[in-house]
């Protein structure tokens, strides 16, 4: 028996010795162009569809502004919510490689269907009758086809977006490397910069194509780009470091909650009694932390003979959990309050329809012959984000480090706070600019003509986009880095998807806010603030509501940041100093 054990141990050592070179030979910088290209093409394709979609729904599907805006809010909500599902599927079942691949295929199919709505006349309502001024509503089948294309695109985004960042980090992440923190920080920054450039191309190139050549070409180009995205990703399959999926994290979270409740009457073991807690073999974590202590009862061993199987695992995972399961749930619960502080900023960032309508009614000419498409002004958000990332990574940090004589970095919580403050200012600026635009429209006699162009440059919209771009650069990158560093590595896809989940919640809440404001302000036959006629409406007041909510949220963030305490890195520094 002992000889067999010795042979098995020897075989395991030989296998691990043989596998190590293969593992270390995969991944690394060689995979970065393929991973980044995959998501970049996906972003150019999908983001290029959003800006002009409100105009497509109004003109081709004969929808009102409020209905079209709410449909787009829900589509964006689905697009931002599916990444959290994709993250669970990747971490628990398929692994990141397969999830990204399937997501790319889903997006491709969705874009082909959307392109068909522009190509096939029967797939949408006929043009309005100019003689009778009547428009036919879309049929159920036509709306189903449109919505199904939206669903496939959202599912595709759910597979690509949460896993791409984590998949790239898997190729580079070496936590035994002392420079690992700086490598990851630089990777996150450049990843967002490349993503920003992709969105910039989408907001300029794709939107311009739609304006100049129509939706048949404008929807066909994204479909071709999505095909390239899938091909590029699968082309480098043999170079990737593919980590296998572990057991379902979602199931593990439910197990911890249920077992902790079942064991609620158990007494806690003595402080130094680590043998009373169930943990994985060769685990560095042998006892749970004291925070959220009531959950610790989920991993208390009541009867070793009954609770533990022969292989050391739990005989019944619904009666006994591991310390690792408990700590994973604790880590997720702990970051949720800080995660929630980004929702209001995401509501502000999701305001796509109203700025497009504003820009359509303003002078967009740069020269006598060229004017910026109304849907392209969001590019200033992306430009400011990308410029800040490059300036921060290549100028501010090196200069500060040179002056101090040691590596310098701005803490993630400070960066998130700065971003939330900037989005408050962005909403104030938005309200002031819209108030000036509306006054100019009324002064020109355009009260009943929302499509008339006022004598006011659309470049006045640029400051609010730039402020929101800086806000996103601080908060979005800061939150992603915060989640990735505070959550266990087994939850890295969830860490990457949490910001997207915030966007999803924000899109739903944005729709709720629009509906509430529309209902309240239109009572008694009054003109709604979010009227289809933006000259009669009061979008400026709508922006003021968002500004007030943003300032309230800023104080809520201060409270959550204080309650969270030091981050993992700060806590490590404190411990080392105390030691």
UniProtKB/TrEMBL annotation:
Classification via PANTHER family: OLIGOPEPTIDE TRANSPORTER-RELATED
Keyword DNA-binding belongs to the record: no
UniProt-recorded Gene Ontology molecular function terms: transmembrane transporter activity
Protein name, entry field: Protein NRT1/ PTR FAMILY 1.2-like
Residue ranges, annotated region (Disordered): 1-24
Pfam family, one: PTR2
UniProt feature coiled coil, ranges: none
Keyword Ribonucleoprotein in annotation: no
Entry keywords, A to Z: Membrane, Transmembrane, Transmembrane helix
Organism: Gossypium schwendimanii (Cotton)
């Amino acid at each position: 028996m002992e000889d067999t054990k010795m042979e098995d141990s020897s075989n395991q050592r030989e296998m691990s010795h043989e596998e190590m070179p293969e593992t270390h030979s995969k991944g690394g910088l060689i995979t970065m162009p393929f991973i980044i290209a995959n998501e970049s093409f996906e972003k150019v394709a999908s983001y290029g569809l959003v800006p002009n979609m409100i105009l497509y729904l109004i003109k081709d599907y004969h929808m009102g502004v409020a209905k079209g805006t709410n449909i787009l809010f829900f589509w964006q909500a689905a697009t931002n919510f599916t990444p959290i599902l994709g993250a669970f599927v990747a971490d628990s079942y398929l692994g990141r490689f397969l999830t990204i691949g399937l997501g790319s295929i889903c997006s491709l199919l969705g874009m082909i269907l959307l392109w068909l709505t522009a190509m096939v006349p029967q797939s949408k309502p006929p043009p309005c009758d100019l003689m009778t001024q009547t428009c036919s509503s879309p049929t159920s089948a036509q709306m189903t086809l449109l919505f199904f294309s939206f669903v496939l695109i959202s599912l595709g985004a759910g597979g690509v977006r949460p896993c791409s960042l984590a998949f790239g980090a898997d190729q580079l992440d070496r936590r035994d490397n002392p420079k690992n923190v700086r490598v990851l920080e630089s990777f996150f920054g450049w990843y967002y910069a490349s993503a920003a450039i992709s969105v910039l191309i989408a907001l300029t190139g794709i939107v311009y194509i739609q304006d100049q050549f129509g939706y048949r070409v404008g929807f066909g180009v994204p479909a071709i780009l999505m095909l390239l995205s899938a091909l590029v990703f699968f082309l480098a399959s043999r170079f990737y470091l593919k980590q296998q999926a572990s057991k379902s994290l979602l199931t593990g979270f439910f197990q911890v909650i249920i077992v902790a409740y079942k064991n609620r009457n158990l007494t806690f073991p003595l402080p130094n009694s680590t043998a009373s807690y169930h943990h994985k073999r060769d685990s560095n974590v042998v006892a749970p932390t004291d925070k959220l202590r009531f959950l610790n009862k989920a991993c208390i061993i009541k009867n070793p003979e009954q609770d533990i199987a022969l292989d050391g695992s739990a005989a019944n995972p619904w009666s006994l959990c591991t310390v690792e399961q408990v700590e994973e749930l604790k880590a997720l619960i702990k970051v949720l309050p800080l995660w929630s502080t980004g929702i209001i900023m995401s509501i502000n960032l999701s305001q796509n329809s109203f700025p497009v309508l504003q820009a359509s009614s303003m002078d967009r000419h740069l020269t006598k012959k060229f004017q910026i498409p109304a849907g392209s002004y969001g590019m200033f958000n992306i430009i400011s984000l990308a410029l800040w990332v490059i300036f921060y990574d290549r100028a501010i940090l090196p200069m500060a480090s040179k002056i101090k004589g040691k590596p310098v970095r701005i803490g993630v919580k400070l960066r998130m706070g700065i971003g939330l403050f900037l989005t408050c200012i962005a909403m104030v600026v938005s309200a002031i600019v819209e108030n000036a635009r509306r006054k100019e429209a009324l002064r020109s006699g355009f009260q009943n003509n929302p499509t008339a162009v006022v004598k006011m440059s659309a470049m006045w919209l640029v400051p609010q986009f730039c402020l929101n771009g800086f806000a996103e650069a601080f908060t979005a990158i800061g939150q992603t880095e915060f989640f990735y560093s505070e959550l266990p590595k087994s939850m890295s896809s969830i860490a990457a998807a949490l910001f997207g989940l915030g966007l999803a919640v924000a899109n739903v809440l944005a729709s709720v806010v629009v509906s509430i404001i529309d209902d309240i302000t239109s009572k008694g036959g009054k003109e709604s603030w979010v009227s289809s006629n933006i000259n009669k409406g009061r979008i400026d007041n709508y922006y003021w509501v968002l500004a007030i909510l943003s300032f309230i949220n800023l104080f809520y963030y201060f409270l959550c940041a204080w309650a969270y305490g030091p981050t993992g890195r700060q806590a490590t520094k404190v411990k080392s100093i105390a030691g």
